[in-house]
Amino acid sequence: MSDLSSPDPNRTVDEPDTAAIVAGRSPVLRAAERLLGIMVAILLMAMMFVTAIDVFGRYLLSRPLPGAFELTEIMLAMIVFIAMPLVCLHRENITVTLITDRLSSRARNLHHAVVSLACGIILAIVSWRLMEHALQLASYGDVTVFLRAPKGPIGYTMSAFTALAALAMLIVTVEHVRLYARLRRARHAGGAANRDA
Fold this sequence. Notes:
Layout: H1 18-23, H2 27-60, H3 68-89, H4 105-140, H5 151-196
Helix pairs in contact: 2-3, 3-5, 4-5
Protein backbone atom coordinates (compact mmCIF):
# COMPACT_ATOMS: atom_id res chain seq x y z
CA MET A 1 0.00 0.00 0.00
CA SER A 2 1.36 3.40 -0.91
CA ASP A 3 2.23 6.04 1.66
CA LEU A 4 -0.66 8.49 1.70
CA SER A 5 1.24 10.97 3.83
CA SER A 6 3.75 11.80 1.09
CA PRO A 7 2.88 13.72 -2.05
CA ASP A 8 2.49 11.82 -5.30
CA PRO A 9 5.37 12.79 -7.62
CA ASN A 10 3.38 11.83 -10.71
CA ARG A 11 0.44 14.17 -10.19
CA THR A 12 0.10 17.39 -12.12
CA VAL A 13 0.17 20.79 -10.45
CA ASP A 14 -3.59 21.31 -10.72
CA GLU A 15 -4.49 17.83 -9.42
CA PRO A 16 -5.06 17.57 -5.64
CA ASP A 17 -2.95 15.03 -3.74
CA THR A 18 -4.52 11.86 -2.32
CA ALA A 19 -3.06 12.73 1.09
CA ALA A 20 -4.97 16.03 1.02
CA ILE A 21 -8.18 14.17 0.16
CA VAL A 22 -7.72 11.69 3.01
CA ALA A 23 -6.78 14.47 5.45
CA GLY A 24 -9.96 16.32 4.51
CA ARG A 25 -12.20 13.44 5.51
CA SER A 26 -14.36 13.63 8.63
CA PRO A 27 -12.92 12.44 11.96
CA VAL A 28 -15.61 9.74 12.11
CA LEU A 29 -14.51 8.32 8.75
CA ARG A 30 -10.84 8.40 9.72
CA ALA A 31 -11.68 6.67 13.04
CA ALA A 32 -13.56 3.98 11.10
CA GLU A 33 -10.50 3.50 8.86
CA ARG A 34 -8.28 3.07 11.92
CA LEU A 35 -10.71 0.60 13.47
CA LEU A 36 -10.79 -1.50 10.29
CA GLY A 37 -6.99 -1.44 10.16
CA ILE A 38 -6.76 -2.62 13.78
CA MET A 39 -9.23 -5.44 13.09
CA VAL A 40 -7.19 -6.61 10.10
CA ALA A 41 -3.95 -6.44 12.12
CA ILE A 42 -5.44 -8.48 14.98
CA LEU A 43 -6.70 -11.14 12.58
CA LEU A 44 -3.31 -11.30 10.82
CA MET A 45 -1.56 -11.77 14.16
CA ALA A 46 -4.07 -14.43 15.20
CA MET A 47 -3.63 -16.27 11.91
CA MET A 48 0.14 -16.13 12.33
CA PHE A 49 -0.08 -17.59 15.86
CA VAL A 50 -2.48 -20.35 14.76
CA THR A 51 -0.14 -21.32 11.90
CA ALA A 52 2.95 -21.23 14.14
CA ILE A 53 1.30 -23.33 16.87
CA ASP A 54 0.00 -25.82 14.31
CA VAL A 55 3.41 -26.21 12.64
CA PHE A 56 5.20 -26.46 15.99
CA GLY A 57 2.75 -29.07 17.28
CA ARG A 58 2.68 -31.03 14.03
CA TYR A 59 6.43 -31.40 13.47
CA LEU A 60 7.87 -31.29 16.99
CA LEU A 61 5.16 -32.87 19.14
CA SER A 62 3.25 -34.85 16.48
CA ARG A 63 0.10 -33.12 17.76
CA PRO A 64 -1.23 -30.55 15.26
CA LEU A 65 -3.66 -27.89 16.43
CA PRO A 66 -7.20 -29.25 15.99
CA GLY A 67 -9.18 -27.25 13.43
CA ALA A 68 -6.18 -25.09 12.44
CA PHE A 69 -6.97 -25.36 8.72
CA GLU A 70 -10.58 -24.24 9.20
CA LEU A 71 -9.54 -21.44 11.55
CA THR A 72 -7.04 -20.19 8.99
CA GLU A 73 -9.66 -20.35 6.22
CA ILE A 74 -12.18 -18.35 8.25
CA MET A 75 -9.65 -15.75 9.40
CA LEU A 76 -8.26 -15.32 5.87
CA ALA A 77 -11.78 -14.74 4.53
CA MET A 78 -12.43 -12.19 7.30
CA ILE A 79 -9.16 -10.38 6.55
CA VAL A 80 -10.04 -10.08 2.85
CA PHE A 81 -13.54 -8.76 3.45
CA ILE A 82 -12.64 -6.43 6.35
CA ALA A 83 -9.73 -4.98 4.33
CA MET A 84 -11.93 -4.36 1.28
CA PRO A 85 -13.45 -1.07 2.54
CA LEU A 86 -9.96 0.15 3.45
CA VAL A 87 -8.64 -0.69 -0.01
CA CYS A 88 -11.56 1.17 -1.60
CA LEU A 89 -11.23 4.23 0.63
CA HIS A 90 -7.49 4.53 -0.03
CA ARG A 91 -7.93 3.85 -3.77
CA GLU A 92 -5.48 0.96 -3.66
CA ASN A 93 -7.49 -1.12 -6.12
CA ILE A 94 -5.54 -2.65 -8.99
CA THR A 95 -5.91 -0.32 -11.96
CA VAL A 96 -4.64 -0.20 -15.54
CA THR A 97 -3.77 3.38 -16.52
CA LEU A 98 -2.60 3.00 -20.13
CA ILE A 99 -5.23 5.47 -21.33
CA THR A 100 -6.21 7.46 -18.23
CA ASP A 101 -2.65 8.75 -17.66
CA ARG A 102 -3.00 10.71 -20.92
CA LEU A 103 -6.20 12.42 -19.78
CA SER A 104 -6.37 15.85 -18.19
CA SER A 105 -6.88 16.15 -14.42
CA ARG A 106 -10.56 16.99 -14.88
CA ALA A 107 -11.14 14.08 -17.25
CA ARG A 108 -9.30 11.72 -14.88
CA ASN A 109 -11.47 12.79 -11.94
CA LEU A 110 -14.62 12.35 -14.00
CA HIS A 111 -13.41 8.92 -15.11
CA HIS A 112 -12.59 7.94 -11.52
CA ALA A 113 -16.03 9.10 -10.37
CA VAL A 114 -17.82 7.00 -13.00
CA VAL A 115 -15.68 3.91 -12.34
CA SER A 116 -16.02 4.28 -8.56
CA LEU A 117 -19.80 4.56 -8.87
CA ALA A 118 -19.92 1.45 -11.09
CA CYS A 119 -17.74 -0.46 -8.60
CA GLY A 120 -19.96 0.67 -5.73
CA ILE A 121 -23.08 -0.63 -7.51
CA ILE A 122 -21.37 -3.96 -8.29
CA LEU A 123 -20.21 -4.34 -4.67
CA ALA A 124 -23.74 -3.59 -3.44
CA ILE A 125 -25.06 -6.39 -5.67
CA VAL A 126 -22.35 -8.76 -4.39
CA SER A 127 -23.28 -7.84 -0.80
CA TRP A 128 -26.95 -8.57 -1.49
CA ARG A 129 -26.13 -11.97 -3.05
CA LEU A 130 -23.81 -12.83 -0.13
CA MET A 131 -26.62 -12.01 2.29
CA GLU A 132 -29.03 -14.22 0.33
CA HIS A 133 -26.52 -17.08 0.44
CA ALA A 134 -25.82 -16.53 4.16
CA LEU A 135 -29.56 -16.68 4.90
CA GLN A 136 -29.75 -19.99 3.05
CA LEU A 137 -26.78 -21.38 4.99
CA ALA A 138 -28.35 -20.26 8.27
CA SER A 139 -31.71 -21.82 7.36
CA TYR A 140 -30.00 -25.14 6.63
CA GLY A 141 -28.00 -24.94 9.86
CA ASP A 142 -24.85 -25.45 7.80
CA VAL A 143 -21.61 -25.72 9.83
CA THR A 144 -17.92 -26.26 9.12
CA VAL A 145 -16.69 -29.86 9.08
CA PHE A 146 -14.28 -29.94 12.02
CA LEU A 147 -15.05 -26.99 14.30
CA ARG A 148 -18.80 -27.15 13.66
CA ALA A 149 -18.82 -23.35 13.38
CA PRO A 150 -22.07 -22.04 11.85
CA LYS A 151 -21.54 -20.68 8.34
CA GLY A 152 -24.47 -18.24 8.44
CA PRO A 153 -22.79 -15.61 10.66
CA ILE A 154 -19.63 -15.85 8.57
CA GLY A 155 -21.69 -15.07 5.48
CA TYR A 156 -23.45 -12.18 7.27
CA THR A 157 -20.07 -10.71 8.17
CA MET A 158 -18.81 -10.98 4.60
CA SER A 159 -21.98 -9.35 3.31
CA ALA A 160 -21.75 -6.50 5.84
CA PHE A 161 -18.15 -5.64 4.99
CA THR A 162 -18.89 -5.86 1.26
CA ALA A 163 -21.70 -3.35 1.86
CA LEU A 164 -19.17 -1.13 3.66
CA ALA A 165 -16.88 -1.44 0.63
CA ALA A 166 -19.76 -0.35 -1.60
CA LEU A 167 -20.33 2.65 0.69
CA ALA A 168 -16.60 3.42 0.54
CA MET A 169 -16.75 3.48 -3.27
CA LEU A 170 -19.68 5.89 -3.11
CA ILE A 171 -17.66 8.14 -0.78
CA VAL A 172 -14.76 8.05 -3.27
CA THR A 173 -17.23 8.85 -6.07
CA VAL A 174 -18.44 11.97 -4.23
CA GLU A 175 -14.84 13.04 -3.57
CA HIS A 176 -13.95 12.77 -7.26
CA VAL A 177 -17.09 14.67 -8.29
CA ARG A 178 -16.11 17.47 -5.88
CA LEU A 179 -12.55 17.49 -7.26
CA TYR A 180 -13.90 17.63 -10.80
CA ALA A 181 -16.12 20.60 -9.88
CA ARG A 182 -13.21 22.34 -8.10
CA LEU A 183 -10.88 21.89 -11.07
CA ARG A 184 -13.58 23.11 -13.44
CA ARG A 185 -14.15 26.25 -11.35
CA ALA A 186 -10.40 26.86 -11.16
CA ARG A 187 -10.10 26.49 -14.93
CA HIS A 188 -12.95 28.94 -15.55
CA ALA A 189 -11.51 31.39 -13.01
CA GLY A 190 -8.10 31.14 -14.69
CA GLY A 191 -9.63 31.71 -18.12
CA ALA A 192 -11.58 34.73 -16.89
CA ALA A 193 -8.42 36.18 -15.31
CA ASN A 194 -6.50 35.74 -18.56
CA ARG A 195 -9.27 37.51 -20.51
CA ASP A 196 -9.31 40.40 -18.05
CA ALA A 197 -5.53 40.75 -18.34
